[in-house]
Write a structure and sequence with these properties.
The structure holds 3 protein chains of 3 kinds.
Chain A lengths: L2 H4 L3 H25 L2 E3 L5 E5 L2 H6 L2 H34 L5 H9 L6 H12 L4 H8 L13 H26 L2 H9 L4 H12 L1 H16 L3 H6 L7 H10 L4 H34 L3
Antiparallel strand pairs in A: 1-2
Helix pairs in contact in A: 2-14, 4-8, 4-11, 6-8, 8-11, 9-10, 11-14, 13-14
Chain B lengths: L1 H31 L15 H8 L1 H34 L5 H12 L2 H14 L6 H25 L4 H8 L4 H30 L2 H6 L9 H9 L5 H26 L6
Helix pairs in contact in B: 1-11, 2-11, 3-6, 3-8, 3-10, 4-6, 6-8, 7-8, 8-11
Chain C lengths: L3 E12 L2 E12 L3 E5 L6 H9 L6 E6 L2 E2 L10 E4 L11 H11 L4 H14 L15 H13 L5 E5 L7 H18 L2 E6 L2 H7 L2 E6 L2 E6 L1 H6 L4 H6 L4 E8 L2 E4 L4 E2 L10 E6 L5 E2 L5 E12 L3 E7 L7 E6 H4 L9 E6 L5 E4 L1
Parallel strand pairs in C: 3-8, 3-9, 6-7, 7-8
Antiparallel strand pairs in C: 1-2, 1-4, 4-5, 9-10, 11-12, 11-14, 12-13, 14-20, 15-19, 16-17, 16-19, 17-18
Helix pairs in contact in C: 2-3, 2-4
The chains are: A mainly alpha, B mainly alpha, C alpha+beta.
């Protein structure tokens, strides 16, 4: 709001924007273009316009994988949001001076390597893993169901990996809440539960939306967790894309799949922005 | 008292969540010191797996590659990202397009960026290796540095910039003596974040490393190893990598909090 | 006698179609304590920022010491600004903050140290020289901001709502403190404020701004006693407004009572007569007399405020009686009182 802020900031931004243009925008446009070309007979690309690749995405075979991925991502996101919101709420309910440390420790695992966090569940869930041993140790001799390489394992892995972020996202609006607003609600005769439902929850929608979208988007395109915890049992979109580029060598179809992924993501992000704007329009913002 | 009941419930939730978050990692760490190496039985404390780890040439080679990638990409990303952040926040009008471009690297699914870069490099016939990983890592790293620095700039009192000019300082002097010192903790925090992300990044590196073993990074090495199941060596490696990340995070947090006056 | 230091002629600042400052002309003399008074959106801050160099005028001239400085950047002007937010450098100690501007002048370290020490004594913050801004109270920060601008001995010191962030008691003290420092340093001060009381207390002269235009300027007494517009009359202090109609040279209230006052030239028929609450006297033998019923009273020690319902207008008249005048009188709710005021104290504005 000053002429200092007004002076041409372009020279500051140019290097970074040039980098992003060259190594993000252009490659992504390239992928977009690839989606409309035909796959060559020997796996290359024939520069002939076609809609086949996009049509293939909605082909029942692949659409099922898409829906399945969305289902798993939705489940993981839903669980992560419920657990994460509860955790964030609990942290925000603790004495103020304890909150930073609690938050720090809630987010800490997020900072360790993704592969390693996923690997930790292999250690726990595999047939010779810790959980099986615990059961044995307690004297259970019967047959245990397969735990690793199942859908459940994938969902657990996704929730585990992204939970810290959800806690962080939900904590931000919760900690900004003016406690007097909730007190005013009590004072006006609302119960704790009603206050939570009518006051606290609506004012923290942006955090919830951000958390959900984040987990969903990262889960649906994930290929590490399905590869490691799902084994070869089933495919998610991420694995499918991976396969098109590294094994099946059908780049145009892989590109089309990525575009579909991006489309889903954009829809969700738009919805999230909308949700946050509505919530903040209702006065959840501090000055 | 409903209050006490509520507090108890909150504590129970926290206990549950923290157990969920920490038990798996703790088991991993514990096993890395298990002489037998298997979760079946505790056969005594030992650091022998760490010894094996450092004797493993493949792992050491991958670690060195990772270090090179992380250092170079962090340096580049920190410079580009900080300049970008200052530039964006100085602007009076916020362009939606600009925001999208800056935000995109953080939200594009890794797999999409990875295949996009792979297609890009191979179509240009660029020989892939560590340099292509570095270039690719700078893309998302600069976005993260930028967002950390921008967060600091949001609470930045721009009137101190005017005050500096009012007291006779040129724009360059103001940048050097007022803007940078105030931003420095955020810049370093952003750099640490970038470094950690780069060290941990797997998917993009995997796609842009090119063929052959020469440019394998640590996460790629880990991925290859854990696909074949649990080995005590990975437990040790995992413990070290986590330790590193935690130290980096602690440092970054401290920097971003300490030295930020007036908040 | 007095030297004109700063001369604004027809200064304009248009942001697109918005005229933030619209043709302001003004002379400010050396050593003056000048106040720019206006509500928010009146353009006072934009005007101040043009004087500091943070905004460039889109028209007109700003002449300082005989030189046109309209286009001179802030760091080249012998003008300093004390920011409303104080804008202290958070990473520098009090002493470093104050020294900053002197370093920019390229002074010798010895001289800088001496001048910083000197001014720290003036603002009585020497013991806190090594503190960081976030370790200071609001009042202390305010003084550091003042010292940082003053130490450069500018020709002109601009203060943007200097007391806005302070609590009421501290504000009273600082008003006098600012006046003392201004006199001691002999620097011209221009204060921007929305607080008319602050302006009346501190300033030698006041300019009232409204919608980017200069309504009136003058000494506090001139502004208070002889407001030239109804807006100024209303903005400064308290004022009773009585709607009147003009018939020839005479004014009549709506109940037919004649109101004595000086009618401005070329006045329309619908007018409003204004009188300050303290100009109404009990049982006065004056040109204007009114009888009414006390609606409410407020006792303030030195004087007594009361609202009086009268047939002159819908609004109750606000009356301020001195404790002496009210002594021994039955002034309670419902009491009937007759008050008078002189035509001399009546201002007349277009309605």
């Amino acid at each position: 709001m000053s002429p200092v802020k007004d002076r041409k900031p372009l020279y500051l931004m140019t290097p970074a924007l040039a980098w992003l243009t060259a190594f993000m925008v252009v490659p992504c446009l390239l992928i977009l273009a690839l989606a409309f070309f035909r796959r060559g007979i020997y796996g290359g690309i024939e520069y002939v316009f076609t809609l086949e690749n996009l049509a293939m995405v909605v082909d029942p075979l692949y659409a099922r994988i898409f829906l399945k991925s969305a289902g798993i991502a939705g489940l993981a996101a839903g669980i992560a949001v419920v657990v994460g919101y509860a955790a964030a709420y609990a942290i925000a309910a603790m004495p103020r001076h304890r909150q930073p440390a609690l938050l720090f420790f809630a987010v800490l695992p997020f900072w360790s390597n993704y592969l390693i966090r996923t690997y930790a569940w292999i250690v726990l869930l595999n047939r010779e893993g810790l959980i099986v041993h615990l059961f044995r140790w307690f004297g259970y001799e019967g047959e245990l169901p397969q735990m690793l390489y199942t859908e459940t394992a994938v969902v657990i892995g996704l929730v585990y990996n992204y939970l810290p972020f959800v806690i962080l996202a939900c904590y931000a609006p919760l900690s900004r809440l003016n406690p007097e607003v909730a007190e005013a609600s009590h004072d006006l005769g609302a119960s704790q539960w009603t206050t939570f439902r009518r006051i606290t929850l609506p004012m923290t929608v942006p955090g919830i939306a951000a958390g959900f979208v984040f987990v969903f988007v990262l889960s649906i395109g994930n290929f590490v967790t399905p590869a490691l915890l799902g084994g070869g049992q089933f495919q998610m979109i991420g694995n499918l894309v991976y396969a098109q580029f590294l094994t099946a060598n059908d780049w145009p179809f892989g590109a089309a799949l990525s575009m579909a992924l991006i489309a889903v993501m954009m829809v969700l992000l738009t919805a999230q922005t909308f949700a946050s704007e509505r919530a903040s329009g209702q006065g959840g913002r501090d000055a | 008292m409903p209050e006490r009941g509520k507090t108890r419930l909150m504590l129970a939730i926290l206990a549950g969540v923290f157990a969920f978050l920490y038990v798996p990692i703790s088991v991993l760490i514990a096993l890395s010191f298990n002489a037998g190496g298997l979760p079946t039985a505790w056969t005594g404390f030992s650091v022998k797996w760490y010894g094996e780890l450092f004797a493993n040439r493949d792992i050491m080679h991958a670690a060195l590659n990772t270090l090179i990638v992380a250092v170079v990409s962090t340096l580049l990303a920190t410079i580009l990202g900080t300049l970008l952040a200052v530039g964006v926040e100085i602007r009076r009008r916020k362009g939606r397009f600009l925001e999208t471009i800056i935000f995109a690297p953080m939200i594009i699914p890794d797999i999409v960026l990875a295949i996009a870069l792979l297609s890009f490099f191979s179509m240009l016939n660029v020989k892939m290796g560590l340099h292509t990983i570095i270039v690719s890592h700078v893309v998302f790293n600069l976005a993260f540095v930028c967002s950390v620095v921008r967060a600091r700039l949001k609470t930045f009192d721009w009137s101190i910039v005017e005050a500096s000019a009012d007291l006779g300082a040129s724009t360059a002097t103001t940048l050097r003596r007022v803007v940078l010192p105030v931003l420095m903790p955020a810049v370093i925090a952003g750099a640490l974040l970038a470094f950690t992300l780069s060290v941990d990044e797997f998917i993009i590196a995997f796609f842009t490393a090119g063929a052959g073993r020469s440019s394998i990074t640590l996460p790629m090495q880990i991925f290859a190893m854990i696909r074949f199941g649990v080995t005590p060596e990975i437990n040790a490696l995992a413990t070290l990598v986590m330790l590193f990340s935690v130290i980096a995070l602690a440092l970054s947090q401290r920097l971003n909090r300490g030295g930020l006056p007036g908040q | 006698m007095t030297q004109v230091l700063l001369s604004l002629s027809d200064v304009e600042k248009h942001f697109g179609r918005v005229k933030a400052v619209d043709g302001v002309s003004l002379d400010i003399v050396e050593n003056e304590f000048f106040a720019l008074l206006g509500a928010s959106g009146s353009g006072k801050t934009t005007l101040l920022r043009m004087l500091a160099g943070f905004e460039l005028p889109t028209g007109g001239q700003i002449v300082l010491d005989g030189k046109d400085v309209s286009q001179v950047p802030p760091n080249r002007r012998p003008v300093n600004l004390m920011f409303q937010s104080y804008a202290l450098f958070p990473h520098m100690s009090v002493a470093k903050n104050i020294a900053y501007g002197l370093e920019m002048e390229g002074l010798l370290r010895r001289e800088i140290t001496a001048r910083v020490g000197e001014i720290l004594e003036v603002i009585q913050l020497a013991p806190l020289a090594n503190r960081k801004p976030d370790q200071l109270s609001g009042g202390q920060r305010q003084r550091v901001a003042l010292a940082r601008a003053l130490v450069k001995r500018p020709r002109l010191l601009l203060l943007d709502e200097p007391l806005g962030a302070l609590d009421k008691k501290l504000r009273g003290e600082m008003q006098l403190e600012l006046k003392r420092i201004q006199a001691e340093f002999g620097i011209t001060f221009i204060v921007v404020t929305h607080d008319q009381e602050e302006a009346l207390v501190m300033a030698d002269r006041i300019a009232i701004l409204k919608d980017g235009r200069l309504l009136q300027s003058g000494t506090p007494r001139e502004i208070y006693e002889y407001p030239e517009t109804r807006y100024a009359a209303d903005f400064i202090g308290q004022m009773n407004f009585i709607p009147v109609t003009r018939s020839g040279d005479l004014l009549f209230a709506r109940n037919g009572a004649r109101i004595g006052g000086v009618i401005p030239a070329e006045a329309p028929e619908a007018l409003v007569a204004a009188v300050r609450p303290e100009r109404l006297y009990l049982d006065a033998e004056a040109e204007n007399v009114v009888t009414g019923t006390v609606r409410s009273t407020a006792y303030l020690g030195l004087d007594l405020h009361l609202h009086l319902d009268t047939p002159l207008c819908d609004q109750p008249l606000l009356v301020r009686l001195t404790a002496d005048a009210a002594e021994g009188r039955d002034i309670t709710e419902g009491a009937r009182l007759t008050l008078g005021w002189s035509a001399r104290d009546t201002r007349v504005f277009p309605a």
